Amino acid sequence: MDGMTTYFMVATIAAHRLMELVDVGFRLPADSLRLPSRAFVRIGIVLMLLLSSIPAARSQGVDPSDIAYGAELYRQKGNCQACHGWAGDGRKMDNQMPDGSNLRETTLDRQNLIVTIKCGRPGREMPAFDRLAYSDGRCFGLKQADLRARQLQMPDPPATLLQSEIETLVDFLIAKVIGKGPMNHAKCIEYWGSDVDICRDFPN
Q1: Does the pTM exceed 0.90?
Q2: pLDDT tens digits, residue range 80-109?
Q3: Are 170 and 117 in contact (CB under 8 A)?
């Protein structure tokens, strides 16, 4: 068991214990509370800080080889760059493909990114990369018949992705693309890992 797995286990157990304590406190009669109201406020703050630290800890704990594989999925198997651009800024690589959103400015969190890649956007130009996306209601409770009845069309993906591949792709996006702002020379070097030719198109 690695350190990150241990962190998640401890954080989850602690969060549950704190929620149980708060729940018990609010169910007790006012005159039987052993903790002053300020203590519950402190518990709530600790709980929020604990839960908010989990996504950041995951991002920091992702193995570099997984980031590299996520980049490969983005550029090759998923061919995300065809619509979103190599930098994820919406400057598509293929003019025949739909216009992709600017991922460098998106506010989607990790879970919503996973759902968007897995299930696509019915009625829009984002395909679903889960092979069984609309076969059993796993995506928004909809099946193919529901999409047809609502006249919601979706393009086919270049390839389908496993759940693990989707999560690895999202880890790459969070590490290198999401919320990073406009591309510049320094960010380009960080993105590619070296000062490749394409980075020279950006000012220092």
Answers
A1: no
A2: 999 999 999 999 998 888 889 999 999 999
A3: yes
